[in-house]
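Explain my protein.
***
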Amino acid sequence: MPSRSSVERFLGRLSDSPPLILDGATGTIIMKALPGFRGCIESLNLERADLVRDIHRAYLDAGADIIETNTFGGSALKLEEYGLASSCREINERAAAIAREAVSGSGALVAGSIGPSGRLVEPLGETRVSALYDSFALQAEGLARGGADIFIIETMNDILEAKTALRAARDTAPLPVICSMTFEPGGKTLTGTDIFTGLATLAECGAHAVGINCSMGPDGILALYRDSIGELKRIGVPLTVWANAGLPEFTGGLAHYHLSPEEFADTSMEFARMGIAVIGGCCGTTPGHIAALKKRCTACGEPSRPGRVSYHFITSRYQTLDLSTHGGPLYIGERLNPTARKKFAEELKSGRNIFLREESRKQEAEGAYLLDINVGVPGLDEVASMRNSISILSGLVRTPLMIDSDNPLVLAAALDLYPGVGIINSVNGKERSLEGVLPLLRRCGSFVVALCLDETGVHREAGARIAIGERLIERLAESGIEPGRVFIDPLMLAESAEPGAAMETLAVIEHFYRKGIRTSLGISNISFGLPARKHINAVFLTMAREKGLTAAIVNPSAVRIIREFSVEERLAHEFLTGRDPGATAYIRNFKDSGSDTAPAVSKPSEGPLARVERLIIEGNGDEIESAVRDALATEPPDGIMNGALIKGLGTVGDLYNSGEYFLPQMIASANAMKKGFALLKPLLTTEGSPRAGKVVICTVRGDVHDIGKNIVAMMLENHGFEVYDLGKDIPAEDVLKAVEKHGPHLLCLSSLLTTTLGEMGKIAGMIESRGLRVKMLIGGAVATPEYAASIGAHYAADAVAGVKIAKGLVAG
């Protein structure tokens, strides 16, 4: 954990008025100083320390209170693209030392800058979380050694990558951390996380300040903050912002940012009036912008800023569950547990995921607020099974997760991969349990269910359970786990075996409710061994609600709010309150009933093509191959391809465009499509099925980013195009050779950097001069429709648009 002194000093400075001023862009100044530079900017910390130091001092002279190191792309994975991964620690240590020298005697803080890896993280991509963690940890170690005062994790567009960087930074050095994400104009990241969910997740995982950077100009970010500032302040930590100097305009292949220092500062002043604690500049900003910003903010009055994380928010990648405003118990779906579900146990052993997918979706539709996931099967690799389940569920459902295991290794694997703030189920009063779970809670920011159980066993009496619960809260607090993160679970004993246990359990719930401590309880065990269990469960849940129960692990399809007791429920109430010993009257009433299990709901019949199409839309890669094989019994390969696979992927594109689907769902559907297409491909080739067209695709020279390009290539291939993917950082001459060799209908070029955008124009000119007949389609973060038109190309904003435009260009 960060030392109290470093965190307190940092938060103390954030509470001062006016806001702290962060410096502006480093890359912008470097490119002006070194026109045509195409190497690794971070390597200049070793090769041109004088230039980097001068940039820091220019921002310091402009009035910056925080100077960022020249290490935005300094993680090991990012440096690997330049063959510099082995120099990661050295580069970052030297960068921090240069900044330290520059600020000497000024009182300014040195912030170690940690930017994104540029890779898609599992389960969306192939980069393992463990590799990402190691990469960021190595960078953080170098920054700390060089003298950084704080870490700034910035420009993150994937919440799991941001969480991983935060965890690595906190594990590496006892320094405060600012975490900042970048959002689209609609208020969500590329991977579908909204502003509140993203920032709340990072705050509860240990960030000391959170905010937004890059994305767009100050007016765009201002619009996002205006819509959410009241809610964001409830997160409980200071907020930050550093915007671009407007949106880039391209002249001669170079990016120009249009906002003058005065315009930038005038708009950014609104952030200060909102109480934003750190304000600075991102792409296109200069010392002039920062000087103007400093001048405006010096006149600010004393803003009111929060300073303590609230611990109210349970999150998934897509959704926040606010415990402070939620009325009534949180219903937690219990059905993803193999203990009493033979089908789930069998599928876990065989590696299939059909039950997992179906039951998670059903429970979400039935109203579950969270889903409990347990994969404990004897002889099974529980770590691997839990990782697989978390990977699927985190993209499949919006519902946050409760991770159910008593194995710390399983919990750690799940927490590292989970893109949100979940609940650990569970820890108990036994020393072995505490030793295994406490370190995870300190690292991962999760909530935890604490069972009223210790070395003395499970007790029937409320007093004994309360005593264990109190000791657990105290022990957790001693380890830095605040009571707001704890759900006390009294443990549900079967009333048929322990008469009176129901009322004792209710007494425990009421005790902790009166003390302001949340409680959780698995309901169904109360009715063990009795007929028509649903009535007993419903009545006890109603009684527990009245005593203040916070969360109930239940079958969500069976949850009922009882307004008035039926005959059966009145009998259940008599039994639970001790007025029907042995449940004699209750059993007599249900002597012909032995179970309350609801019959399975069968799916409406669907034809083979409809099934394939549905699985593509759901992104269900587990069933798609068997569905395609079944369809081949009655349908021709091209009929399946066009009438189901491509049709389903088209629907996914529509859902993506409408904002109902995000990148994770689109990738899942594309991967399912790839599996289905792999089965059909030999048959389509044999039968001479025509391809949609030939495409050559690459990222241009000087740009080693290829996430977006890879997604476009995959989507084009899934839509029937013959794709020749040249890779990334491809010289113009090699692009032309590929065009001449393959004779494509379409050349697709990607560029993420303003410094490499001119390569597209260069390639366009070479194509024209050589008289090659090929249409061009360009895309990437810095590409625009205007730039595309200026070089005679077409523009696509994303992969879905790219496929649509490509089809039109080839057809035309």
User: Anything to note?
Assistant: Residues 592-602 have pLDDT under 50 and may be disordered. The longest strand covers residues 721-730.
